[in-house]
Amino acid sequence: MAPGDGELGGEQDQLAAGQAAGPATLAGNGAARAAGHRALKLNGRASREPELDGEGGRMTIFEHLAELRRRVLVCAVAVVVTSIAGYFLYNPVLHFMTGPYRSFVAHHKGMVTGNLVILSPTEGFTTRLKVSMYIGLALAAPVWLWELWRFITPGLKRSERRYAVPFVLSALALFSMGVTVAVLVWPKALDWLISASGSNITPVFSPAGYVHIYVLICLVFGIVFLYPIVVVFLMLARVVPSAKWRKWRRPAIVVLFSVAAVVTPSNDPFTFLGMAVPMVVFYELSIIVGRLLGR
């Protein structure tokens, strides 16, 4: 055997070994790539999961329910405590609510009394409990709004949280504005309702009926005044751009006046106009906000 034959044989052996190992190496690389693709898919799926707690860990449905129960319990305790305080604030609050009625009686000498009249032994006490609860809900608003915010915040993305704070503050401002308008238009509305009943009818109101209509009007005004939030949200989500709202201005005004006529609890012209006119103004302001935001 020549000296070169050994070297040539060694190279041939190495080449054969490489060819034999090639399929195994390729198979290993393919398996590694497949595992990498699976990991990327899992990571992508996990990144789209909204169920995250405040520290970045995933929360189970039972943990969500436990957190919801805890926050509802905190809100309930806050409302109970503030309702106890509302029980002692009942007299001045009821005095404020019945101010328009007493003012009407003062200007009509034939009226029997400016006080509310109970029609059953328990009506006065149940009315006091209801008014105390309403006061408690209002006084505890910072607590239950904070608990609601803390419950929904972990499920929001960072971009969504940026819009969430202005939306919440705007909702509070609009709801408070609606309640304020309801309180301002109620005296005129009550005068019209009593006068429209006729000269042979003496109005004597019970606490349950009077407080019910008063609170209902405030609640309806507050909720209706929130509709600009919905309009701006549809613009930001690019569902309905501001150009469409401008195009729909005339039919929208007709719809807004119709809605005000339907949802107004007392059906008097003062309450109707007090709701319809601000709704039209808010419609125009919403369009301006949409144009400023480029929507």
Q: How is this fold's topology laid out?
A:
Layout (H helix, E strand, L loop, with lengths): L2 H45 L13 H28 L1 H8 L1 H8 L16 H17 L1 H12 L5 H39 L10 H18 L2 H10 L5 H6 L1 H15 L5 H24 L3
Task: Describe what this molecule looks like in 3D.
This protein is mainly α and 295 residues long. The chain has two domains: 50-155, no CATH class; 158-295, no CATH class. The protein contains twelve helices and no strands. The chain has helices at 3-47, 61-88, 90-97, 99-106, 123-139, 141-152, 158-196, 207-224, 227-236, 242-247, 249-263, 269-292. Helix 2 (61-88) packs antiparallel against helix 6, helix 4 (99-106) packs parallel to helix 7 and helix 9 runs parallel beside helix 12 (269-292). The longest helix is centred in the N-terminal third of the chain and has 45 residues, at 3-47. The radius of gyration is 34 Å and the shape is flat. Mean pLDDT is 76; it is low at 1-12, 14-28 and 44-56.
Question: Could you give a short description of this structure?
Answer:
The protein is mainly alpha-helical and 295 residues long.
Count of all domains: 2
**Whole-number average pLDDT?**
76
Number of helices: 12
Shape field: flat
Major sheet, described briefly?
A: none
Proportion in β-strands = under 5%
Radius of gyration equals 34 Å
Low-confidence stretches: 1-12, 14-28, 44-56
Order of helices and strands: HHHHHHHHHHHH
Classify the helix fraction into a percent range.
over 70%
* Helix-and-strand structural type: mainly alpha
Number of strands: 0
In whole angstroms, the N-to-C terminal distance is 88 Å
